[in-house]
Design goal:
Radius of gyration: 35 Å
Number of domains: 2
Number of strands: 5
Distance between the termini: 97 Å
Number of helices: 3
Structural class: alpha+beta
Helix content: 40-55%
Largest sheet: 5 strands, antiparallel
């Protein structure tokens, strides 16, 4: 009889207590959505910062080129800078025949250091 009384008392208190629903953002499926969204925003931000940093380094390299630097073009041609102008450069590609080629400044991929040219 006591157990029936406790069961009925339990049922009556459970019926009178209101159920608490979590806020809309605390739902598990919503939390997963916000976690993925936050991760994507972080990746896009990180990617854009890296791209801007690489672009700034390339612009500095193009701006600081000077006569006598050994460079590699986008097409794979290696040569020595003979003349550096605002929008174009002149490369000497063959010492024996004194062959020179004119390129757009943007066609320079990188400046080759002495260590890199000695190892090849």
């Amino acid at each position: 009889m006591i157990s029936l009384h406790l069961f009925l008392a339990d049922a009556s208190t459970a019926a009178t207590q209101p159920t608490v629903t979590p806020p809309w953002w605390a739902n598990q499926s919503n939390m997963l959505f916000f976690l993925i969204l936050g991760f994507l925003v972080l990746m896009i931000f990180s990617s854009s910062r890296t791209k801007k940093k690489e672009e700034a380094q390339r612009n500095d390299m193009l701006k600081n080129m000077k006569r006598g630097d050994k460079v590699l073009t986008i097409g794979g041609i290696m040569g020595t800078l003979v003349d550096v102008r605002d929008t174009e450069v002149v490369l000497k590609v063959d010492e024996s025949s004194n062959t020179k080629i004119k390129f757009s400044r943007e066609a320079i991929k990188r400046v080759v250091t002495d260590d890199e040219s000695a190892s090849k």
